[in-house]
Specification:
This protein is mainly beta. It is flat. Residues 481-499 have a biased composition (Basic and acidic residues).
Length: 499
């Protein structure tokens, strides 16, 4: 008989049945227990224990399930593991290794400075990943090499190459003479940039092709030739309320053109002014100039989880085609994060934002007001925006009020929700009543909730002795009456509270 038929399907093998003097004797010693789905083994990876390793299907003793993905143990693992069943017990062998994730970071030393570097994609143990140097050092070429060993990274920043920066100078030779060139724009290492010959010598047009190698610039080639137009011809430029006078460095052929950056005349402008030499006159064309967004340019934004609308103004000039970063606090002090604004021909718009409402910090002091009283409270624990405190008795603020109130976190500030508080009637509360021609005052004999509760009074009355004797013949038409409290719960018509 198979073991599986008599031992609940958990065992493999056969039970030996022997008949002895009319009685069956069963020998189950050959039965071996299988490993079932849900039964687990502890796999240790890089010192970390994972107790949830299990087979995907029933596994007979002596068999092995192979190729299980290590990522099922931890998303940060690569490789596979095998599970072997031995009489109901699982054991493992694995090639699991911890990867270095994009959320990990390491300090990289580049040119004597330290930078916090994160991989651009997950790095498998024993391999490397590259991070562009330019993501941490503007204009730098090359890569920071990250090596991953069991989830730990090492960074090598020796491959980062410096750019040739704007404003740096070098000596070049063209037209049979030596010249000093000052770069007007940055050149990335391993690439080339161009400078106009007339920026070096007024008597030339064409370009200098300059190459950059780890911060050192040199001339690769040039097309510098003498300019055949009126040298030093002056012409005026006017843009955005600013004016400038330019001079041609040398002669320019009729119908030939030169370009001047709009931003060199008026700060922040984009595009180019095209200057055409027409019969000895320099005629500027501003049609391609695009205006910047000046200080105080306003735009409307929708921010935060509540999608609130805010109007914000730039705190600095943003050039056309450029972006500027503002703190989210310019929209509301209760935000944290940044807003990236972009400028297009004078129009400001939001590119992106990381604005989130600030939480209300633990121990934050805030004030709530109820009636004529104010109370300063302290937040027991941090609340996220929109979070609400536990209920607090309204009487904590004003003893004359019943029920409870809460406070809600609104962008780092607490706002009391006092609408549920109701003022009670105390033995000091006085109400006026009218009973026939009589008037008087009543007060409850004990505190009553301010939720519309009523109390009863005995309608029997007693007159007060007159405080002053009335002159003979003059009738006192007003009789002051007092009501005697009673235990009856009756409503007195015409009564109201006076506080």
């Amino acid at each position: 008989m198979r073991c599986v038929e008599c031992l609940q399907g958990q065992y493999d093998g056969n039970v030996s049945m022997t008949c002895a003097d009319g009685t069956y004797l069963a020998d189950s010693s050959a039965c071996v227990r299988a490993c079932l789905v849900g039964e687990t083994d502890t796999v240790v990876v890089n010192g970390n224990s994972h107790t949830d390793a299990t087979v995907t299907a029933r596994l007979s003793s002596g068999n092995t399930e192979t190729g299980l993905q290590c990522s099922t143990l931890d998303a940060a693992y690569s490789g596979t593991y095998d599970l072997t069943c031995t009489n109901g017990l699982l054991s493992d062998s694995h090639s699991c290794h911890e990867m270095c994730l994009t959320t990990d970071s390491v300090t990289a030393l580049v040119r004597g400075s330290s930078y916090n570097v994160m991989p651009v994609s997950d790095i498998v143990h024993g391999t490397t990943g590259n991070v562009p140097c330019s993501s941490h050092l503007t204009g730098y070429a090359g890569d920071i090499v990250l090596t991953c060993t069991e989830g730990s990274m090492q960074a090598d920043g020796s491959g980062c190459q410096a750019p040739c920066t704007s404003g740096s100078s070098l000596s070049v030779t063209f037209g049979g003479a030596s010249h000093t060139v000052t770069l007007t724009s940055q050149i990335t290492s391993g690439t080339t940039g161009t400078e106009s010959c007339n920026s070096v010598d007024n008597g030339f047009n064409g370009d200098l092709v300059l190459s950059c190698s780890d911060g050192a610039a040199s001339m690769a080639s040039n097309t510098c030739t003498e300019r055949p137009c009126a040298q030093d011809l002056g012409y005026a430029l006017s843009l955005g309320g600013e004016t400038a006078t330019n001079n041609l460095a040398s002669q320019v052929t009729h119908a030939a053109t030169v370009t001047v950056g709009c931003g060199t005349v008026a700060s922040g402008w984009g595009g180019d002014i095209t200057v055409t030499c027409i019969k000895g006159s320099a005629i500027p064309d501003y049609s391609a100039c695009l205006s910047p967004c000046v200080l105080g340019t306003t735009t409307s934004l929708v921010l935060g989880v509540d999608s609130e609308s805010f109007s914000v103004s730039s705190t600095a000039v943003i050039a056309h085609g450029a972006t500027g970063t503002e703190s989210c606090a310019i929209a509301h002090q209760g935000f944290e994060g940044n807003i990236v604004l972009s400028c297009d021909a004078g129009t400001l718009s939001m590119d992106s934002n990381t604005c989130v409402e600030k939480p209300c910090l633990q121990n934050l002091s805030y004030s709530v007001t109820l009636g004529q009283f104010s109370k300063t409270l302290q937040l027991d624990s941090q609340l996220s925006h929109g979070g609400t405190t536990a209920s607090t008795a309204c009487s904590v603020v004003d003893p004359s009020y019943d029920r409870d109130f809460t406070a809600t976190c609104n962008k780092a500030d607490m706002v009391g929700n006092m609408g549920g508080c109701l003022q009670a009637c105390t033995t000091e509360t006085v109400g006026l009543f009218a009973l026939g021609p009589e008037t008087g005052k009543v007060s409850p004999s004990s505190r009553l909730p301010g939720d519309g509760s009523s109390f009863g009074m005995d309608c029997s009355v007693r007159r007060r002795p007159p405080a002053v004797a009335m002159p003979l013949g003059v009738e006192n038409t007003t009789r002051n009456m007092e009501m005697e409290p009673t235990e009856k719960k009756q409503h007195i018509a015409g009564a109201h509270e006076e506080h």
